[in-house]
Amino acid sequence: MNRWLAIAPLAALLALGLLFGLFSLKRDPQVKPDALVGKQLPDLVLPTLDTGRPVRLLEAAAPAPVLVNIFASWCAPCEIEHPVLVDLKRQGVRIVGVAYKDAPENTKAFIGRLGDPYAERLVDRDGRAGIELGVTGVPETYLVGAGGKVLAKHTGPLTPEVAKDLLAKAPR
User: Fold this and answer.
1) Strand pairing partners for 33?
2) How far apart are CA 136 and CA 49, in angstroms?
3) Cα(32)–Cα(77) distance, rounded to whole angstroms?
4) pLDDT of residue 172
5) Is the Cβ–Cβ distance between 81 and 163 less than 8 Å?
6) Distance, C-alpha 29 to centroid of its chain
7) Chunked in runs of 10, what are the mean pLDDT values of the chain (172 residues)?
8) Which residue blocks in the chain are alpha helix, DSSP H?
9) pLDDT at 64
10) CA distance 161 to 167
11) Can you give the pTM of this predicted structure?
């Protein structure tokens, strides 16, 4: 009887390992949750980076189309995509930046060092807005159309090709 009691936790652990292993074989790691695509951008109020004045994200995202870029100074891929954002601004693309879980002084230094591609700079210090937006990691970029409708989402750093494809989804 004591032998079975000793083996039971090991058997349970082995069964759980097998269950998780089988689950991971059926899971597609390339699937990205796009829960907001086709829906209205959440009505969030965030402070601006410079003054702390509260701004509705929907108002900051007008006029459409606009890219809403979730970034952070501590994010290495954000630094990689930053030149693409600066180039998009030069091309006349309107970009709203949301600093995710970042200290404002670090965000200012990041933008000061790499250039400022943003028409509006907002702060999501505690990450609550990120939860409502469905952020799975930074950087993430949303294409927002007329009326605040999310037309597309890209997770990961933007490349010129990805940015072109993303912007092509905006109605003309």
Assistant:
1) none
2) 22
3) 17
4) 76
5) no
6) 17
7) 75 79 66 77 95 94 92 97 98 97 97 97 96 93 93 96 95 82
8) 2-26, 57-60, 76-90, 104-114, 128-133, 160-167
9) 81
10) 10
11) 0.80
Q: Are 78 and 138 in contact (CB under 8 A)?
A: yes
Q: Residue 38 and residue 149: Cα distance in Å, rounded?
A: 6
Non-local CB neighbours of 57 within 8 Å, separated by 6+ positions:
41, 42, 43, 44, 45, 46, 68, 96, 98, 122, 129
Tokens read off for 86: 């600066």
Q: Tell me the residue length of the chain.
A: 172
Contact 156, 169 (CB under 8 A): no
Q: Please list the alpha-helical segments (H only) found in 40-151.
A: 57-60, 76-90, 104-114, 128-133
Residue type, 119: A
The answer to whether the beta carbons of residues 79 and 89 sit under 8 Å apart is no
Largest separation between any pair of C-alpha atoms in the chain: 75
Place of tokens 């230094």: 109
